Amino acid sequence: MLSSAHRELLKTIGNAQRFEIMMHLRQSPLNVNQIVEKTGLKQTAASHHLRRLRQCRFVEVKEQGRERVYSVRRNPVDQFFRLLDQHAEKYCRYFCIPSQKAQ
After folding, report:
1. Is 60 helix (H, G, I), strand (E, B) or coil?
2. Helices in 1-103 by DSSP H: which ranges?
3. pLDDT in tens, the chain (103 residues)
4. DSSP code of 21?
5. Domains of the chain by range and CATH?
């Protein structure tokens, strides 16, 4: 049975837009305007997703002058993505993607 903490974690990472934000932040720290530019999200939506990612401790923020710069929390996020990458490469690449099942 899933705990409420597990449910919230899965809701957070299960959102494609939040996942995309984390992928961009893995490359380099970004401010909200840069995230909006890279993702095509509206500023309010990006801020909402960043707040959720901060609450779950995937993302941290630093004040740099008048702007806030977001980055991933390296240790937990890198471990998490490494596990996802390994699983996707080993299993989902061939078995989870409908268009590739027949190949």
Report:
1. strand
2. 4-13, 16-27, 32-39, 43-55, 74-87, 93-95
3. 889 988 988 899 899 999 999 999 999 999 999 999 999 999 999 999 999 999 999 999 999 999 999 999 988 888 888 998 888 888 887 666 665 444 4
4. H
5. 4-73 (1.10.10.10)
